[in-house]
Each structure stands twice: as C-alpha cells, then as structure tokens.
C-alpha cells in the first residue's frame, strides 16, 4: 500500500473538498475525518482502509451515501452498480494490482474488447479518475458504487486471487 | 449599510471615474449619461444622493436639479463641473445644491461631503418606519454582494464567486486555506475576512516565513488576549516558503499541539499558499500533514486574468491610494485604451505586478490622464524588474508585520508606535489601515 501513498493522500483530499463543496458534509465534519485519516495513514502499517469516506460513513455517520450516489448520477451522469450482483473475475489478466484497488476504492470489474468497466465510490475525486484513466489508456466506462459494495467486491477478489495462488501452488507440487 | 448614488455625466470617461470612486467607497452606483433618462430613473428609484455634471447638451445640471428637487426634494444633490461662474454657484446654492466641486476633483472632499449630506438627509427623514428599514438594510445589505468586500471589485463572475465562497466560509471552524498564484494579495483578502465580523473581539494576526515561530505566535496571542480578543485568527502567509520546522509548527498550530499546548484563546488558522498545492506537495514543499489539513476548507483565489473586468478598477483604486499617500489633490485616471489593456494583459504576477506597474506609471506619468503608452512602458519595466517587484512586495508586507507587532506591544498606542519607528502617527495609521 505504501507505493500508493501519494494517490491515497491526494484522492482523499480531493474527495473531502468535493464533499464539502457539494454541501454533502460540513467542513467541521471533514476536519474530524481528516484527523482520523491522518492517524490511519501515519500508523506504522498503512491501513488499507485509510479513507475519509469510511470515516464519514461509518465512524462519524455524517454522510448520507444515498445522497452522494444520487449526486454522482445527477451531476456526472454515470450509472450505478452493485458489485454484489456481478460475477467478479481475477484482476491478474488485466495487470491490475489489487492494492491499487484498495487504495482508491475502485474495481475494474469487466472488460469488453478494449473498454474497461470500472466501479468506484471515489468517482468525485478527480485524482482517482485521472489515475485509472491513464492506467487503462482512457478506455473506461465508469460506474458509481457504494463503499460496502466495493469493499465486499475487493474481499471477493482477494479470495479469487488466493484460490488462484493455491491452485498454482498445488500444480507446482504435482 | 451601503447608500445608493445616482451619477449623471455625459462625459463617459469622467462618469466612469466618478463611478469607480463611489464604488470603491462602497456606494451602490447607477451611472447615466442622459439627463432625460436620469429623471425617469430617479423618479422610479430611491437614491440617497445624486451627483451631476453641470454642462450637458440636453439639460444643464442646474435644470436637472430643479426637476428632481420637485420630485424628491429630500435627496441631496452635488454638482461637479469643469468651470462655473460665481453667480451660477450662488444660484445653485439658492436652489438647494448640497455641494459644488470643480474639476480636477478633490475626491476626498467629495466623498466627505457626500457622507455628510447623506447623514444630514437621513437625520431629517428619520422616523420609526425609516429606522426599521435602516435596521433591515444593515443586517443584509452592503453593496451588490450583500457584504463588504474590497480586495476584488467583484465585477467579474470569478471574483464574485470567490467573494461569496469566502463569505459563506467565514465561520470556518479551525482552518481555511487560500490557494493563489504568485503575487496574490492574501493580506488584503484576509482583511476582507476580518471585515466579515462586526465584533472587535475578533483579532487577526499575520505571520510569514520571516516572522513565524512559536515564541512570536505565543507573544502575539498574549497581546491579542490582553487587548480583549475572544478569538484569534492566525494568518500564515507564504507557507510554501517556510522552513521544515516552521511547516511542522504550522501543522500543529490549529490543533494547539506541542509548543502551542498552552494556548487557551480560541484559535483558527488561515494558510495562504502561492502556487499549485499538488505541485508543491509533489516537490516536497508541503508535507502530508499540511496537505491534508489544507484540504478541509480550501478556496482558490482567482488570478487577475480570471477577473478581467476587475483589473482596471483595482488599478484606479491603486492610483487613488498613491494620490492619498502623496497628498495630491486631483485624481489621475487611465484613458480608455489603457483600461482596455488592463483587461487584456495576462498579469502573470497578479496583484503584486499590477501594483508595481501602477506605481511605475504614477512615478513617470502622474498627469491627469494616464496613457496607454505609459502603462505599456511600465509593464515592460515591471516585467524586467520582477525580482525587484517581488522584493518590494516582500518588504512592504514585512513593514506591515513590524508595525502591527509594535502596535500590539504598545497596546495600540499610535504615538508610542510612531516614536518607536521615528516617524509620525499619520504614517503608522496609513500602514495599519
């Protein structure tokens, strides 16, 4: 996760500013979330869920996620997706590091020809969008997703990768 | 409370100058060039004062005044003119003119007389109903923005948005970040924020890379507390130019951590940064703590090129300031082509460049009309001497820091401060203003 430290800082900073600018959280609440975020990011092991969004949603309970998603749909005109209903596949063929997905709360969940379908709960954070679009050569169709949907999706992907690793190890032993 | 003034002058340039002068003095101005139209507008609108030229083609100022005095005799009128016979002046006074000013104008006398006349008129008109109205106005109205704002004339959408955003954030809890381009006039902007609060118990202290250390902060806070401060806003200028130790201090100040643990007075911090924050972060000039801390309430100050309609007005205000500083009587004004140039030039070093350019123009061409040629020559000089301009801006800013610090240490006693610096109280007043 340390390799994504700059992206984590930048994306969370932008996300916080955007939430305040859109009137979705107050600057006082963001201030409290920033403090927790800095504690998380400065801990010896960078917590993989060091996220202002997590703090605002689950710790401080000051952000209405439904309003955030509604804002994304209305202002940015992108669709929403619940990854719980999507059959996820390994990220390895796409050459995507799962730690990057954790760092940016974003999952490329499908690829049709050269176009990637990417779900994120950080869509309103410009650095996240820019980073992924550069990584995937601009061929991205974006979807908004809830934090819970992304987190569970990432856990499932980790299971998929673990199963792949186990299968590879077993094949090597044979 | 902002008063409204109707300005009538068929000379477009002079009308524009008068408009600038009154707008800078926080009046709400309607400027018209046609007396017939002015009568109609005056009839249908409430004004606190009328300023009119005398010599106009369709109707003289005296005739215009007679007409409007029949409609609303209570509204005071000031006459401005290039030349008037003594008999005409006597006649005008007989007709009830509140003041007669001959060109070139002494704008300070003009504004002083304006304020007097409005005050007199208000006293005369005072009634319970009027008092109630005035109270309502005071609560919500000060110019077209609805609040006082001087660092930008707010004639462009970018500066209007900026002013409104700043006003909406005025009750920020702990930190506010102002991010601007090099040469941005952060101090004046912070003075506007200061002006949002009516209470004298709101104190602002200013610290820059040259003056920011824990001891200085604590001593200034103690002085502010002794002067009755109930809350102090600490403005940190040039954060990007601070040393590593100063940046660590800057990050601990809003939380009152470490060396600031003893602070009891409620404290807020405004960070002022020149440059792109992300680039500064990438370059290691802003550390992680500050980078995140500055994101809590962040406002981008528009560059001058984003507010083209503001620039000529700002320049004219600078001219007025220089004239005041030098004690000159008449107001120089930029010719129309020069005003157009202000709008089109990019002003890469923003306010600092504009200020040094206007100073240069006034040094070399202090006549009544400031020409485009003088302006473009000054821009070239200013561009060639930009390091000097930056040093001058820095020295000017430091001078204000020192005078403020001395004022706090001497409990606001201007005489002691002026004795300390070996100057007169007028200079000290000027710097503190």
The DSSP helix count of chain B reads 19
Amount of helix of chain A:
55-70%
Rough outline of chain B: elongated
Major sheet strand order of chain B: 2-1-3-4-5
Distance between the termini of chain A: 33 Å
Mean pLDDT of chain A: 90
Strand content of chain A: 5-15%
Largest beta-sheet details of chain B: 5 strands, parallel
Rg on CA atoms of chain A, Å:
17 Å
Largest sheet of chain A: 4 strands, mixed
Tell me the count of domains of chain A: 2
Task: Give the ordered list of helices and strands of chain A.
Answer: HHHHEHEEHEH
CATH classification, class level of the largest domain in chain A: Alpha Beta
- Overall tally of domains of chain B: 4
How would you describe what is shown here?
The complex is a heterodimer of chains A (174) and B (433). Chain A is an alpha/beta fold and 174 residues long. Chain A folds into 2 domains: 75 residues, no CATH class; 95 residues, GMP Synthetase, Chain A, domain 3 (2-Layer Sandwich). Chain A is 55% helix and 11% strand. In chain A, α1 packs antiparallel against α2, α1 crosses α6 and α2 packs across α3. The termini of chain A are far apart. Chain B has 433 residues and is of the alpha/beta class. Chain B folds into 4 domains: 134 residues, Response regulator (Rossmann fold); 146 residues, Rossmann fold (3-Layer(aba) Sandwich); 80 residues, Helicase, Ruva Protein, domain 3 (Orthogonal Bundle); 45 residues. Chain B has 19 helices and 12 strands. In chain B, the strands form 3 sheets. A 5-stranded parallel beta sheet of chain B has the order 2-1-3-4-5, with helices on both faces. A 5-stranded parallel beta sheet of chain B has the order 7-8-9-6-10. In chain B, β1, α1 and β2 form a beta-alpha-beta unit. Chain B is elongated and about 75 Å long. The two termini of chain B are 20 Å apart. About 4% of the residues of chain B have low confidence. Chains A and B meet through α1 and α2 of A and α11 and α12 of B.
């Amino acid at each position: 996760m340390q390799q994504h430290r700059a992206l984590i800082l930048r994306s969370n900073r932008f996300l916080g500013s955007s939430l305040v600018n859109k009137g979705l959280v107050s600057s006082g609440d963001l201030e409290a979330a920033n403090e927790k975020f800095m504690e998380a990011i400065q801990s010896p092991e960078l917590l993989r869920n060091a996220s202002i969004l997590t703090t605002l949603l689950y710790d401080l309970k000051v952000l209405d996620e439904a309003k955030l998603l509604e804002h994304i749909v209305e202002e940015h005109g992108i669709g929403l997706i619940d990854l719980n209903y999507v059959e996820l596949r390994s990220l390895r063929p796409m050459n995507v590091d799962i730690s990057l997905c954790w760092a940016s709360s974003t999952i490329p969940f499908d690829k049709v020809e050269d176009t990637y379908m990417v779900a994120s709960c950080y869509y309103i954070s410009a650095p996240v969008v820019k980073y992924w679009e550069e990584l995937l050569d601009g061929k991205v169709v974006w979807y908004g997703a809830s934090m819970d949907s992304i987190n569970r999706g990432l856990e499932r992907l980790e299971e998929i990768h673990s199963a792949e690793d186990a299968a590879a190890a077993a094949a090597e032993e044979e | 409370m902002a008063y409204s003034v109707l300005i009538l002058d068929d000379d477009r340039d002079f009308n524009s100058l008068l408009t600038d002068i009154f707008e800078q003095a926080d009046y709400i101005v309607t400027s018209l060039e046609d007396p017939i139209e002015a009568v109609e507008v005056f009839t249908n609108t409430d004004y606190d004062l009328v300023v009119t030229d005398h010599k106009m083609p369709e109707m003289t100022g005296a005739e215009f005044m007679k007409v409007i005095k029949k409609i609303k005799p209570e509204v005071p009128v000031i006459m401005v003119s290039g030349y008037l016979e003594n008999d005409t002046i006597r006649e005008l006074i007989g007709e009830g003119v509140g003041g007669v000013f001959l060109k070139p104008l002494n704008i300070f006398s003009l504004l002083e007389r304006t304020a007097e006349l409005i005050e007199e008129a208000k006293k005369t008109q005072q009634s319970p109903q009027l008092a109630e109205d005035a109270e309502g106005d005071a609560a919500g109205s000060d110019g077209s923005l609805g609040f006082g704002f001087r660092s930008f004339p707010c004639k462009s959408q970018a500066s209007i948005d900026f002013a409104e955003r700043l006003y909406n954030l005025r009750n920020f809890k702990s930190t506010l970040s102002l991010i601007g381009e090099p040469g941005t006039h952060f101090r004046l902007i912070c003075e506007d924020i200061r002006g949002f609060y009516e209470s004298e118990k709101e104190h602002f202290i200013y610290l820059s890379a040259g003056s920011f250390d824990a001891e200085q902060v604590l001593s200034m806070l103690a002085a502010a507390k002794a002067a009755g401060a109930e809350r102090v806003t600490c403005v940190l200028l040039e954060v990007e130019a601070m040393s590593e130790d100063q940046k660590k201090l800057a990050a601990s100040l809003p939380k009152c951590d470490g060396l600031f643990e003893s602070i009891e007075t409620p404290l807020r911090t405004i960070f002022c940064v020149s440059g792109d924050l992300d680039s500064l972060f990438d370059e290691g000039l802003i550390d992680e703590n500050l980078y995140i801390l500055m994101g809590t309430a962040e406002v981008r100050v528009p560059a001058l090129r984003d507010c083209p309609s503001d620039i000529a007005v700002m320049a004219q205000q600078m001219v007025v300031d220089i004239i005041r500083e030098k004690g000159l009587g008449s107001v120089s004004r930029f010719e129309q082509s020069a005003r157009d140039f202000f709008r089109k030039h990019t002003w890469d070093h923003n306010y600092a460049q504009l200020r040094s350019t206007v100073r240069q123009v006034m040094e070399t061409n202090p006549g009544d009309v400031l020409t485009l040629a003088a302006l473009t020559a000054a821009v070239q000089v200013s561009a060639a001497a930009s390091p000097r301009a930056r040093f001058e801006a820095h020295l000017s800013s430091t001078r204000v820091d020192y005078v403020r610090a001395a004022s706090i240490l001497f409990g606001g006693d201007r005489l002691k401060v002026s004795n300390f610096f070996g100057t007169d109280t007028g200079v000290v007043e000027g710097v503190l203003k």
